[in-house]
């Protein structure tokens, strides 16, 4: 039984490629099928091989009439390849038999021939037939014809099962008028809908081995110790025929209730477990948010947390359970989270810094040296008094930090105000501050129309329109603007160079902070004669 199924499986696997609606016929030890798929000779030959056969050979009168039946009973038109090919490149003197042609199987034996033209052939040709002209027509093998005819060897047949059955053969065609049914064919028998497989000339009823066509099961096949059984999806049960499934009678089986279902006769009602309520659709269950009830968690510093189907009470952040059910303040300072001072508060804590320090905005736990005046004590290494640190914008001398007067080095274009550790640039009336402390004439001041630079307001006009209507005024504006830009550039270069000359450490405005927190030992410092690094002029 197992070997037989294996054989059937081999046939079946060859026939798994879906074939275009075809008609077939079986007699003696062959089945024939007609395929309405356009192909040249080699593609047609390949297609038959893929189905486990070859292009059709017509060696007897009997096969010829089978071919006629096939062509006439099927709904096809056009030319169809036969399995006859002339591969010689020389003229043979033969006009009888196959005229030097060979069947695709490689032999040239025949009891029959039906040439359209009896002449000898001198170059590569192939043979086709059509419904209207069933004589053998020689033509170029490269031609694309409407289809082809295949043949399959088969030795074992089953008898027809019932009167009206349709058989799905392993050769890619389905037929309902086969007198002999080749092994590997399947059919469904009415009225029960039992499924049958022809194995070694005998029908077996499904479910057969799950590995062959899923045992013939409609849904799924399962191999158990007892054999093969068909199984059905939830809400369905297996039918009498053992292969198909139909819906269960219990209305709950297909009710689609998310949690619970109660049925009575043909009606059902869905229900939900504790902590859930029925959704408006009558099937789904949704979580109840118990925390909307303010009395869910009573007690000081307690917090309600909703969970799926329930809720829990826990202590608010900064509080912990004292093992007696109360939430008490946590002394966060015990773990030393602050760099300097820590003060515990109810539910939280507060960091602060010692004299001369402040908390940086990015981390309130830390403390950084801070100097709110122009002169502060330096942060010196206790072991090496020559190593003192100052905040940004200060310079160290002995044990003191002195503010750097950035204004003195021309850091701003127009107005400069020195502040502890930094400086602020501003511009005179009618000017506007841009990057690097530079002031430019404020073009946006005054009424739009009278200003010659108005045409350069970025949003004033779309660029295309601007080019099209470039007036004399605009041209003048462009020129004035270009001149101002060049002047500004020259001025900038000049300022920078001047600064570099007088103030070697400065490389540009961007690097003003290079001064910050530098550890300058006294010898280096001495090369600057003046504490404020004043201009030499
Ligand atoms: C055969 O072809 C004709 C016309 O093309 C069509 O009306 C008929 O339904 C076809 N029959 C089958 C069995 O395909
Ligand atoms: C036949 O057709 C196939 C594809 O349809 C193509 O790949 C092949 O080259 C053709 N062969 C000849 C000999 O024309
Ligand atoms: C055979 O099939 C035809 C059409 O499918 C149907 O009308 C007829 O009743 C069937 N006969 C039997 C015996 O099942
Ligand atoms: C810490 O305490 C000070 C003074 O009471 C207050 O200004 C500051 O906002 C507090 N900081 C935090 C993080 O609570």
Automatic annotation (TrEMBL):
Keyword tags:
Disulfide bond, EGF-like domain, Glycoprotein, Lectin, Membrane, Phosphoprotein, Proteoglycan, Repeat, Secreted, Signal, Transmembrane, Transmembrane helix
- Which superkingdom? Eukaryota
Query: What GO CC terms are in its UniProt record?
Result: extracellular region; membrane
Signal sequence span is 1-21
Task: Extract the SMART domains matched here.
Answer: CLECT, EGF, EGF_CA
**UniProt topology in membrane:** Single-pass type I membrane protein
The GO biological-process annotations, alphabetized, read as: system development
What is a GO molecular function of this protein?
Answer: calcium ion binding
Instruction: Please give the InterPro entries that the UniProt record associates with this protein.
Output: C-type_lectin-like, C-type_lectin-like/link_sf, C-type_lectin_domain, cEGF, CTDL_fold, EGF, EGF-like_Ca-bd_dom, EGF-like_CS
Instruction: Tell me yes or no: is Membrane among this UniProt entry's keywords.
Output: yes
Record domain EGF-like: where = 287-325, 329-368, 403-440
Q: Which residues form a coiled coil?
A: none
PROSITE patterns on file? ASX_HYDROXYL, C_TYPE_LECTIN_2, EGF_2, EGF_3, EGF_CA
* Cell location: Membrane; Secreted
**Which segments cross the bilayer?**
470-493
Tell me where in this chain the C-type lectin domain is found: 27-143
The subunit structure is: Interacts with ITGAL, ITGAM and ITGB2. Interacts with thrombin/F2; this interaction switches the specificity of thrombin from a procoagulant to an anticoagulant and antifibrinolytic protease. Interacts with ANGP1 and ANGP2; these interactions significantly inhibit the generation of activated PC and TAFIa/CPB2 by the thrombin/thrombomodulin complex. Interacts with PF4; this interaction enhances generation of activated protein C. Interacts with HMGB1; this interaction inhibits HMGB1 inflammatory activity.
Function of the molecule: Endothelial cell receptor that plays a critical role in regulating several physiological processes including hemostasis, coagulation, fibrinolysis, inflammation, and angiogenesis. Acts as a cofactor for thrombin activation of protein C/PROC on the surface of vascular endothelial cells leading to initiation of the activated protein C anticoagulant pathway. Also accelerates the activation of the plasma carboxypeptidase B2/CPB2, which catalyzes removal of C-terminal basic amino acids from its substrates including kinins or anaphylatoxins leading to fibrinolysis inhibition.
Recorded protein name is Thrombomodulin
Lineage of producing organism: Eukaryota, Metazoa, Chordata, Craniata, Vertebrata
């Amino acid at each position: 039984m197992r070997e037989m199924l294996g054989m059937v499986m081999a046939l079946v696997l060859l026939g798994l490629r879906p074939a275009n609606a075809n008609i077939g016929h079986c007699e003696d030890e062959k089945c024939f099928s007609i395929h309405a798929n356009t192909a040249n000779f080699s593609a047609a030959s390949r297609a038959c091989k893929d189905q486990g056969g070859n292009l059709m050979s017509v060696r007897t009168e009997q096969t010829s009439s089978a071919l006629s039946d096939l062509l006439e009973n099927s709904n096809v038109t056009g030319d169809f390849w036969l399995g006859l090919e002339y591969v010689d490149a020389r003229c043979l003197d033969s006009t009888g038999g196959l005229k030097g042609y060979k069947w695709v199987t490689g032999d040239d034996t025949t009891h029959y021939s039906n040439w359209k033209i009896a002449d000898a052939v001198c170059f590569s040709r192939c043979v086709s037939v059509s419904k209207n002209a069933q004589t053998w027509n020689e033509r170029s093998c490269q031609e694309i014809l409407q289809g082809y005819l295949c043949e399959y060897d088969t030795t074992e047949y089953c008898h027809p099962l019932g009167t009206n059955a349709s058989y799905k053969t392993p050769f890619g065609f389905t037929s309902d008028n086969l007198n002999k049914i080749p092994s590997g064919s399947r059919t469904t028998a009415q009225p029960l809908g039992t499924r049958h497989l022809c194995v070694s000339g005998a029908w077996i009823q499904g479910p057969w081995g799950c590995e062959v066509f899923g045992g013939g099961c409609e849904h799924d096949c399962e191999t158990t110790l007892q054999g093969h059984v068909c199984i059905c999806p939830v809400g369905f049960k297996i039918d009498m025929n053992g292969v198909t499934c139909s819906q269960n009678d219990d209305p709950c089986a297909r009710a689609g209730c998310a949690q619970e279902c109660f049925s009575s006769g043909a009606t059902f009602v869905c229900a939900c477990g504790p902590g859930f309520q029925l959704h408006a659709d009558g099937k789904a269950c949704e979580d109840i948010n118990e925390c909307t009830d303010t009395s869910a968690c009573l007690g000081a510093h307690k917090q309600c947390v909703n969970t799926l189907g329930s809720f829990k009470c826990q202590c608010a952040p900064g509080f912990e359970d004292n093992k007696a059910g109360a939430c008490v303040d946590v002394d966060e300072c015990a773990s030393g989270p602050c760099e300097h001072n820590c003060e515990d508060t109810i539910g939280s804590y507060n960091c602060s810094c010692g004299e001369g320090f402040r908390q940086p905005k990015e981390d309130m736990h830390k403390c950084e040296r801070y100097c709110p005046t122009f002169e502060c004590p330096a942060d010196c290494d206790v072991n090496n008094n020559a190593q003192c640190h100052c905040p940004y914008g200060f310079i160290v001398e002995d044990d003191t930090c002195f503010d750097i007067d950035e204004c003195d080095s021309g850091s701003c274009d127009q107005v400069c105000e020195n502040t502890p550790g930094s400086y602020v640039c501003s511009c005179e009336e009618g000017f506007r501050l841009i990057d690097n402390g530079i002031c430019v004439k404020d073009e946006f001041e005054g009424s739009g129309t009278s200003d010659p630079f108005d045409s350069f307001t970025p949003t004033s006009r779309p660029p295309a329109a601007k080019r099209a209507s470039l007036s004399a005024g605009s041209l003048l504006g462009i020129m004035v603007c270009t001149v101002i830009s060049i002047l500004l550039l020259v001025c900038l270069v000049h300022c920078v160079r001047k600064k570099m000359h007088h103030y070697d450490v400065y490389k540009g405005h961007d690097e003003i902070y290079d001064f910050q927190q530098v550890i300058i030992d006294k010898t280096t410092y001495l090369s600057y004669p003046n504490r404020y690094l004043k201009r030499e002029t």
